[in-house]
Amino acid sequence: MKYITTIGDKEYTVEVIDERHVSINGRVMTVDFAPVSNQPVYSLLIDGKSHEAYIYPGEENWEVLLRGRLYPAQVEDEREKRLKTAAGGGVAESGEFHLRAPMPGLVVAVPVKEGQPIKKGDVLLILESMKMQNELKSPKDGTVQRIRVKPGETVEQKATLLSLV
Amino acid sequence: MKYITTIGDKEYTVEVIDERHVSINGRVMTVDFAPVSNQPVYSLLIDGKSHEAYIYPGEENWEVLLRGRLYPAQVEDEREKRLKTAAGGGVAESGEFHLRAPMPGLVVAVPVKEGQPIKKGDVLLILESMKMQNELKSPKDGTVQRIRVKPGETVEQKATLLSLV
Amino acid sequence: MAAVTKVLVANRGEIAVRIIRACRELGIETIAVFSEADRQALHVRYADEAYLLGPAPSRESYLRADKIIDIARKTGADAVHPGYGFLAEREDFAEVCAGAGIKFIGPKPSSIAAMGDKMTARETVRKAGVPVVPGTEDVGNLSNEDLLSIAPKIGFPLLIKATAGGGGKGMREVRSIEEMPHLLDSARREAESAFGDGNVYLEKLVEGARHIEIQIIADEHGNVAHLNERECSIQRRHQKLIEESPSPIMDSELRARMGAVAVKAAQSVDYQNAGTIEFLVDKDRNFYFLEMNTRLQVEHPVTEMVTGIDLVKEQIRIARGRALSFKQEDVQINGHAIECRVNAEDPYNGYMPSTGKIMHTLLPTGPGIRVDSGVYTGFEITPHYDPMIAKLIVWGETRAAAILRMRRALEEYRIVGVRTNIPFHQSMMDSHRFMGGQFDTRFVEERFTMQEDETTQTSNAEIAAIMATLVAHQSTARSAQFIQRNERDTSNWKWVGRWERMHR
Amino acid sequence: MAAVTKVLVANRGEIAVRIIRACRELGIETIAVFSEADRQALHVRYADEAYLLGPAPSRESYLRADKIIDIARKTGADAVHPGYGFLAEREDFAEVCAGAGIKFIGPKPSSIAAMGDKMTARETVRKAGVPVVPGTEDVGNLSNEDLLSIAPKIGFPLLIKATAGGGGKGMREVRSIEEMPHLLDSARREAESAFGDGNVYLEKLVEGARHIEIQIIADEHGNVAHLNERECSIQRRHQKLIEESPSPIMDSELRARMGAVAVKAAQSVDYQNAGTIEFLVDKDRNFYFLEMNTRLQVEHPVTEMVTGIDLVKEQIRIARGRALSFKQEDVQINGHAIECRVNAEDPYNGYMPSTGKIMHTLLPTGPGIRVDSGVYTGFEITPHYDPMIAKLIVWGETRAAAILRMRRALEEYRIVGVRTNIPFHQSMMDSHRFMGGQFDTRFVEERFTMQEDETTQTSNAEIAAIMATLVAHQSTARSAQFIQRNERDTSNWKWVGRWERMHR
Questions:
Q1: Residue D338: closest CA among D279, D286, D397, D285
Q2: pLDDT tens, position by position, D322-362
Q3: Which residues pair with D253 in a beta bridge?
Q4: Would you tell me the crossing angle of helices C118-127 and C109-116 to the nearest 10 degrees?
């Protein structure tokens, strides 16, 4: 089975030949690949070299943490990929942005008002977690559309705090 | 709920009054009891004192390993217990004994023959495991009835090796 | 001689465990206190006794001095060890302990007070002839107006610092008068929530400075000694991340001078027990008093590793009224020690705190490794407390040997369930500037990146690509299997159906 | 100067990990070899490269010298470290390495041969003036007949020992001529399976003796030094369980004398690299040469903890052809170290080996603790290899401090999935005779019980009774709940049924 795997700006053609063999960009290698302790930790012996990494499923990619370095990898079935490219790929970006809580915590302050215009990098909200005050900044220019929380509220991870248009 | 719990030659009357209270031989105590990491390891706070133990289910008792000491504990519902005692209790001991493999290993030698009379403590079989030769001795006098394995065979834990009558 | 036979540990996490271990090894009974979030915490499991304080938030649990004193009284504790943070630098708490006839394992309330108010401290040591960083002179609660007017005289860049401060909480850096009001507000807000005191002061920002601190230890008989320095310049947002002893820039001459000044500073407040004098050292090796921490430091193990002195046991010895177990001239430096603070925060996601249950751990072990941890597999990391979950300390014959050992330890360390900053430490151990000892307190924020050099980059990326592909492949393969199984099942049913028809 | 840049570690478990760590810390590449049972083993995970040897049984994997040399050649390894056991004391293996131009990290084949055959060794050192235990003099393969005729001359009790021996394998104690034939058979059988050599010899049993060994280290330039003694008298079935340094019965005078004799013994075979001379020391402090182990010992860490010398790194230094990094007079004894061998065997079930998957672990950590482990949560303990899964080593300023620290470490240690002998070690640390240092090699088997004193017995039994009851109660409560839930379900269905009828 052939895959196109993308890390950063590099594309790798990886073929899983059988249980014991893969090829990357045409070079065939012997592999022995196994999860450790039923954890998202994997041990790979490739042509004898021993490697170990954490591999977490990301939103639509795989996060490989190898020797302290993070490699976000997009793995696509070669066919799939070709079709996508043919279709011109890429979904239209919605103008809306929902600020979500990166971790559970206490809303300390919301220094913006609904309807207020925002520049990229402006502080939208201050969230306290583990005794640290974390300033959540805007990733884009826009206007504050809806604020869903107020200071003093505790919020769960991933809770939507406010929206921008 | 009341229980009679027996450790060695000592009997304890333990009543589980509610989530937070037990009494032992009449003395009421405050308890906070919780398993640790979903393991057979339990943390007990009793009147503030902190204790931790491994608690494994045994054949028909509980094995409590507390501060390096093993306490095999028989826990019986008080009613049950009373009935049993009334019935005169105790099942008749069958004269038969099945020697089972205490761990997986390799049968090195079977120094006995079927029909051979055996004294308590005689070596019935030699099992090699973890590079150690373990002599399995007879717990009773008797006669070798049936030998189920031969030297060179590898056996699983708890496999019946031979029987005595 | 005060009897210390039963110690209440007024703290949580790794430091509570550290103290309980020392007590156990001295045959002293221990009492733990815990919040509702910490019933399963190691300090509760390891202590002889453990009592609930209240709900998870510190203000309702670990900061409840009243409840803690109560428990100490009821359980007949004859001493309290505050650890660091929480009540460690509250003179009122030390007072109450004394009042209750319970030995506070730390300095006298008056010393805590003198050093606790950072402005008072500056003045006290300045009068004792200790060099300080230029900043707000006059002591007292200064309004934003006052501070805004003083600021230009001190000159920018400058630092806003919490008077009750410590650990960089409520600290803000100011580059211009314009941004100062907003920063004053956020600084006061953070200080308020961290110390229940929003008062702040100003200090000139010494650029290109290193943070070097001297460990002080003093008994009740007037003996004061220093246990050399700790290099703590590797910081982020004024939070120390890596500490080592000795400092790569130190020589015996400077060490002697700074040690002497530190001893003088301690004596200026008649200090007893363990404490730390923090200095800034500028490019020209001038040093300025920053503040004194009147307690055990997070990073105390690096000092223990090179001096062979157990600081917690020495603290208890002092609390018992005995003299120091050594003299200044006995203090050696044997080899080199480095500590990495393992925080539950993701260096690849803006160092955001990471919470959750620890599903798996594999600790680095073997020669020259020490781990001071407060967590274990199955323990839940909550957002209520400090993100530091463990300290990894290594010893080596030389600094180079220690770095090599730290590298292998970090590579061995596995924690699943929360993201940690171990990758940050790995990158730091590979950084040429760190290896060369060339860094200051701004290094992490201004000149450090987690990027590796191109060559390893590419080869590792290839491995990562292969691993990601294999995992993706397996997961699709698995789902495929299920489908097949289901198909087989249905066909079996078909078969059964046919069989039934045949036998009608 | 021999280059050592890539080391093949011809071993498994904790010692393979120990060696890989040392190499990594020296910037040396490592090659692991493994059996089918060990694909997931730590040494495979930690090495730079790893190659499969064959099926689980040692004879088909870790004893396959041919395959190992092959792999070393193919991978361009310039050195092999044999660890202990397996091929460590096979002079033929050392020969083949030399032949292949691969440095064997250990002594010369001739030294291994001379010391490997225990009878030859006895003769060699005896001629060098080293006192030996009386026993079979004439070298050569002796038949049972010969041995049975010699036995009475030596006198009973005596020991049957494997000529290829080590680790008590193939060792039997004989009290009378009658039981000797059966014991000879079982000894030869065990020796055969352990070393592939059933040859045995006899030695007088020195009663009330302690097992004390001297660590030797020698370079290729004629420098031979000893690193003091290790006390290894706590044994069961001739397997060491606890080792410590220094020995509680040792004084500097005896240490100097035994050290000098040990050096002489090593020199008698022109010894190089690390080795150990085992002695028996009787009640009157007379000492007799027992054997020399021409390799690293399991218990080497206690020596490292008190001397500060890393033995594995020193071994590599010597293999590189360099001189010892120290002189005899530099060797210090700093404090006291104790090692407990953690075996997967159940002390409450006749020390039967225990196998299975490790479901959970919590390691003791903190100051003065070192764990050398080969296992981790999720790893499967198979019956194929030695039951030792970890070594717990502690350091203390004094022996008493070390014992107290070991107690707290043992109490912290949690392993779920296999039974271990940790309870044995806990009882030993509480034993007055152990604390008093009053024991010999028979102590465990003849005078040690795991019973505690009455008072703690009863109080702990009460706690155990409560805990057992609570667990039993909860399990019954749980099943009860299920029943209730089912009842509720059915009643719900009833309700649905009624609802349907109502709406027909």
A1: D397
A2: 999 999 999 999 999 999 999 999 999 999 999 999 999 99
A3: none
A4: 100
* Catalytic option among D295, D317, D341, D399: D295
Helical pair C300-307 and C311-319, crossing angle rounded to 10 deg: 90
Short-list B149, C386, D34, CA closest to A32:
D34
Is there a contact between B131 and D472 if contact means CB atoms under 8 Å apart?
Answer: no
What sign does the dihedral C171-C176-C179-C180 (CA atoms) show?
A: positive
Chains with 3 or more CB pairs under 8 A to chain C: A, B, D
At B127, phi and psi to the nearest 5? -115, 125
Q: Which residue of C has its CA nearest to B44?
A: C45
Stretch among A112-126, D39-53, D69-83 having the lowest mean pLDDT: A112-126
ipTM exceeding 0.90, yes/no: no
D349 contacts B46? CB cut-off 8 A: no
Q: Are D367 and C310 in contact (CB under 8 A)?
A: yes
Q: In chain C, what residues touch D296 (CB-CB under 8 Å)? A: none
Between CA A103 and CA A127 the distance in angstroms is 9
Contact state of B67 with D190 under an 8 Å Cβ cutoff:
no
Cβ–Cβ below 8 Å for A43 and D45: yes
User: What's the CA gap between C237 and C205, in Å, rounded?
Assistant: 14
Q: What is the pLDDT of residue C401?
A: 97
- D420 touching C, CB under 8 A? no
From the candidates C18, C188, C295, C320, give the one annotated as an active-site residue.
Answer: C295
| Catalytic residue flag (residue C295) | yes
- Cβ neighbourhood burial of B133 (10 Å; 0-12, 13-18, 19+): buried
Question: Is pLDDT at D137 greater than 60 in this prediction?
Answer: yes
Chains C and A touch (3+ CB pairs under 8 A): yes
Q: How far is C365 from chain D (nearest CA, A)?
A: 6
Task: Assess C360–B contact: CB distance below 8 Å, yes or no.
Answer: no
> Which residues, 6 or more positions from C482, have their beta carbon under 8 angstroms from its beta carbon?
none
**Token pair recorded at residue C245:** 């002893």
Of residues D342, D337, D125, D132, the one with CA closest to residue D227: D337
| Contact between chains at A37 and D376 (C-beta distance less than 8 A) | yes
Token look-up 């649905």 returns: D496
pLDDT tens-digit readout, B4-59: 999 999 999 999 999 899 999 999 999 999 999 999 999 999 999 999 999 999 88
Nearest residue on chain C to A38, alpha-carbon basis: C360
Q: Where are the extended beta strands (E) located within C2-63?
A: 6-9, 29-35, 49-54
CB D77 within 8 A of CB D2: no
Tens digits of residue pLDDT in C32-66: 999 999 999 999 999 999 999 999 999 999 999 99
Asked if D473 has any chain B CB less than 8 Å from its own CB, the reply is yes
Predicted TM-score (pTM) of the model is 0.87
Per-residue DSSP letters for D441-470? TTHHHHH---PPPHHHHHHHHHHHHHHHHH
**For residue range C259-271, what is the model confidence (pLDDT) as tens digits?**
999 999 999 999 9
State how far the alpha carbon of B124 is from the alpha carbons of B140, C301, D171, in Å: 11, 56, 21
Question: What is the strand order of the sheet D388-396 is part of?
Answer: D287-293, D273-281, D210-218, D224-236, D239-245, D336-343, D388-396, D369-373
- What is the percent of chain C where pLDDT is above 70? 93
Beta strands in chain A (DSSP E): 2-7, 10-18, 21-24, 27-35, 41-46, 49-57, 62-66, 69-77, 97-100, 105-109, 117-118, 123-129, 132-137, 142-147, 154-155, 160-164
Rounded-to-10 torsion of CA B73, B76, B78, B82: -110
Q: Is B133's CB within 8 Å of D193's CB?
A: yes
CA distance C53 to chain B (A): 12
